[in-house]
Amino acid sequence: PEGRRGVVSALLRRALPVALALFALSPLALSASSRAEESPAGLRESLRQSTVRAIELEIDAYRQKLQAAMAGTGPEENRAKFRQTIAALEAERERFSRMPAAEYPDPVASTPDTASVLDGATARGPMLPAQLQTAVVTPDKPYAIGSLLSVEGTSRSGPFFHLAGIRGGDASVLKPGKRCKVTMYLVYRREYFGLIGDYYVYVSDVR
Hints:
Blueprint: H1 2-24, H2 40-70, H3 77-98, E1 108-109, E2 125-137, E3 160-166, E4 180-189, E5 198-206
Parallel strand pairs: 1-2, 3-5
Antiparallel strand pairs: 2-4, 4-5
C-alpha cells in the first residue's frame, strides 16, 4: 500500500504542471487582457469591420429619422435630406466592405483628451486613420454593439463613444459595475451639434 501511494503521488506531481499549462491555454483562462496583441494586419481588419458596422448603425438611425419625417415630424425638406444621407452612407458602406485590410491605414495615437467635449473636427464620416485612445469605463448595463459607453470624465454634454466592435466579438467582457481600462480606436465620427465629439469605437483591450 505504501509503495502504491508513493507511485500515485509521483504521478500526480508529474501531471499537475501539465494540467496547469493546459488550463492556462484554455478559453476559460484567457481574458481580453492576457491575449497577445493583434497583429498590425489583424488590427486593420478589425478596424475596417468596425467602420462598416458603424456605417450600418448610422444607416439604421437615418432610416428611423426618415420614417419619422414621412409621418410628419419636422419640416418636409428633411425627407429629401435624409434620403440623400442614406444613399451616401450606403455608398460609403460599399466602399469599406470591398476595401482590402491592407488598404486600411494604420491607426495613430490621438492627442485630444477623452474628457474634452470639443474635438475641433466637424465632418461626419470614417476617421482615417483611426485614432487610438485609452479610457476608463464602468458599464451601467450590459453592452452590445451600438451601446453608449460610460467613459469616466465625460458628461451628458459629451464626448460620446458608441461601441462598433470589440475584440473577440463578445461585449459581455465589459461587465456592469466593474471599472476597467480599455484601449479603443475611434473609427467613425457621428454627426452631432457643433464641435462636440460623438464617435463609434473599436475596443481592442479590456483590463
